[in-house]
Amino acid sequence: MSRVAIKSPDCLELAVMHSKAVDFQKHGEMLDVEKFNEIQRAHQGERVDFMCHNNKNVKKSAVKKSPGVLGQMYRALKDNIDITDFLNVEYNYKID
């Protein structure tokens, strides 16, 4: 199981697949569904902490600490603020 990161081969391959799928109407090139399924199966069960904090279907044992900056920020903030309070704040400020 390889590490999933922005510059990983699987992530780059998925970006190419996405581009082809979006532009299908223009060029008619079909998406390799089997390759997509292969990548999906290879990373099935991989979850990082900041992506599944409120997903009750994910087993805690399957969640890994993200070593990247998003994981670091998530862990630094999650115990210090209640994000639901933050999201419920009414914003009355206007940027001119």
Instruction: Give the terminus-to-terminus CA distance.
Output: 49 Å
Number of beta-strand segments: 2
- State the helix count: 5
- From the alpha-carbon coordinates, what is the Rg to the nearest angstrom? 18 Å
Work out the count of structural domains.
Answer: 2
The helicity comes to 40-55%
Low-pLDDT segments = none
By helix and strand content, what is the structural category?
A: mainly alpha
| Percent of sequence in beta strands | under 5%
How would you characterize the overall build of this protein?
- With 96 residues, the chain is mainly α.
- Helices cover 45% and strands 4% of the residues.
- It folds into 2 domains: 1-44, no CATH class; 48-96, no CATH class.
- Strands 1-2 form a two-stranded parallel sheet.
- The chain is extended.
- The termini are far apart.
List keywords for this structure.
mainly alpha, 2 domains, 96 residues, single chain
What is this entry, summarized?
By secondary structure, the chain is mostly helical.
Topology:
Layout: H1 9-22, H2 24-27, H3 33-42, E1 47-48, E2 63-64, H4 69-78, H5 83-87
Parallel strand pairs: 1-2
